[in-house]
Automatic annotation (TrEMBL), chain A:
The keyword Transmembrane helix applies. This is Cell division protein. It comes from the Bacteria. Keywords: Membrane, Transmembrane, Transmembrane helix. The lineage of its organism: Bacteria, Pseudomonadati, Pseudomonadota, Alphaproteobacteria, Rhodospirillales.
Automatic annotation (TrEMBL), chain B:
It is found in: Cell inner membrane; Cell membrane. Residues 2-222 form the ABC transporter domain. GO terms for molecular function: ATP binding. The keyword Cell membrane applies. The keyword Calcium does not apply. This is Cell division ATP-binding protein FtsE. It comes from Azospirillum oleiclasticum. Belongs to the ABC transporter superfamily. InterPro entries: AAA+_ATPase (IPR003593), ABC_transporter-like_ATP-bd (IPR003439), ABC_transporter-like_CS (IPR017871), ABC_transpr_LolD-like (IPR015854), Cell_div_FtsE (IPR005286), MacB-like_ATP-bd (IPR017911), P-loop_NTPase (IPR027417). SMART domains: AAA. It is a peripheral membrane protein. Homodimer. Forms a membrane-associated complex with FtsX.
Amino acid sequence: MLLRKQYDVPLARDPSSRFLVWITLLMSYLAALALAGALLVGEMAARWDSGLAGGLTVQIAPLPGRTDVPPLTARVEAALTVLRATPGVTRADPLGTDDAARLLEPWLGPDAAKDPSLPVPRLIDVVTDGTVDTPQLARRLESAAPGATLDDHAAWLADLRAFARSVVLAALGIVAVVSGAAVLAVVFAVRAGLAIHHNVVQLLHLMGATDRYVSRQFESHVLGLSLRGGLAGVALAAATLLGLQHAAEGLRASLLPDMNMAPWQWATLLVVPAAAALLAVGTARATVLRTLEALP
Amino acid sequence: MIRFENVGLRYGTGTEVLRDVSFTLAPGSYHFLTGASGAGKSSLLKLMYLAHRPSRGLITLLGRDVARLKRTELPALRRQIGVVFQDFQLLDHLSALDNVALPLRMAGVAEDDAMEHCVEILKWVGLGNHLQAKPSTLSGGQQQRVAIARAVINRPRLLLADEPTGNVDDGIGMRLLYLFEELYKLGTTVVIATHNEALIRRFDHPHLHLDQGRLHLLSGAAA
């Protein structure tokens, strides 16, 4: 029944049919872009999260003018001793001056780190198994190497997670708004169809058609239209994403997230036309059944 | 069995178009419903094919008290009633074959079986060569016969026809009434609304006569 080419109610000729395809196309386009954005940001956040979780950074400031503390190199050694003796620390590697220079280069230029007047701190990259008591380690480091501070990236990670959550929520909001608009469009198209074909619907009703028999006619109709619009919308969104991906590849030292989508992420976008079709069919059914209740 | 007891019908807040209508039709009977234009024939038929609910009174159709039926039970009852509408009400975008197949599709009959039956019945009404013709390409008489084929395709227990001879000449009109006669002989209860007294005088069936919304004359029907 759902695949019959010809329906008892001649809905295919309605002007609302073309309108519904275009509306579904636009809604699916926006929903697919929102979904892709959420997937990319979620992936990026997860990558950064896993990269930083379990990692610590120890920073030892130069403290120029302080004569009561050992020199910087000695304090770095003391800090390394403390770190390597701490249970849970699996690795502690000091960053060399060349590494520090590379980190500073984007902001201060290529030779800035070599300027002796610039108090560049020394950094130690620490990897743990996640069982380290961070506050206690910070106190021991400060005691062994004055000027040493411990950064467990907690604040940065919290910000990153909050940002990722916001992006996902915003995407969900867009999908919700788009779905609402799609529902309204289907309700409008179905009501228009019911009004235009009132005589046919009335005849079918009098001949003994159940409400579901009539609603299936509308469901089949909007299923075809929404699938066409949905697939076209996702195809358009895919083309847009590929264009953005191409544009992002041309940027050096880009601050944009990685725009390359994995195959499973592309496949996930196909949820959009399927969801649009389901939503349209459900809306059409509810609208028709509700309207037919008024018939005797 | 069809029974009307003190049935009245009014549209909106207007005056009653049917007043205190009472009669009983035995199963397998054949009746003509006569009366001048505006007497209420179509309204009475509409009550019989459940297009309207009465404003008052009781209607029993095919043994079921209509007032007690749930809305979900009505489609099955309607499928036991075949109706030939005055204006045929064929679906213009469907072929003659598909128009006739409608009641079978609604009843969930398999497509192959439905097509077989439809071809058979269209041949029976003399339209075997017009299976795929759209209604707009058929003459009035041919459309009438498609409408009749559609009304009887699923062997209804009650057949109602509203002025079936109104748009055709007497020769075709006679032929249509003989078609109904054949169905009557197969056990279908038949009610034909018409104002063509000359045509129906040729048949020996009782009349229900309506005048200004009242059932005045009953000939052969139980009051």
